Amino acid sequence: MLKKLIGVSLFIILLSGCSIVGVVDHHQQRTVANAGFERQEIALKEGGELHYWQGGDTSAPAILLLHGFVAPARLQTQLMS
Questions:
Q1: CA–CA–CA angle 18, 8, 69 (5° rounding)
Q2: Spatial separation of the C-alpha atoms in residues 64 and 45, rounded to whole Å
Q3: d(CA 15, CA 5)
Q4: 6-25 b/e (C-beta count within 10 Å ≥ 16 → b)
Q5: Phi, psi (deg, nearest 5) at residue 59
Q6: Alpha-carbon span 12 to 18, nearest angstrom
Q7: Looking at the record's lineage, which domain of life comes first (predicted)?
Q8: How far apart are CA 39 and CA 45, in angstroms?
Q9: CA-based Rg of the chain, rounded to a whole angstrom?
Q10: What is the rounded distance in angstroms from the CA atom of residue 66 to the CA atom of residue 73?
């Protein structure tokens, strides 16, 4: 029954035109936000924007984690714990 429900849900998502990448991205962003991080952005002088997540103990040393395209934010959250 659960497999059928999952299958129907995925079918509806695909029919509605939603991208599964968008669904996963939304879930990962919510997971990071629920862990206490805030999404930030900076306008670059050269044009464009830099998006990042900020959080944690401000009295502790800072850690900067860089990632490439489609790197899972959830993995970074686990590393920050």
A1: 35
A2: 21
A3: 15
A4: eeeeeeeeeeeeeeeeeeee
A5: -85, -10
A6: 9
A7: Bacteria
A8: 20
A9: 17
A10: 11
- DSSP-derived letter for residue 76 is H
Residues 6+ apart with CB under 8 A from 64: none
Question: Do the Cβ atoms of 55 and 39 come closer than 8 Å?
Answer: no
What are the two backbone dihedrals, phi and then psi, of residue 51, each rounded to the nearest 5 degrees?
-105, 140
The span from the CA of 63 to the CA of 75, in Å, is: 14
d(CA 6, CA 33): 25
> pTM to 2 decimals?
0.52
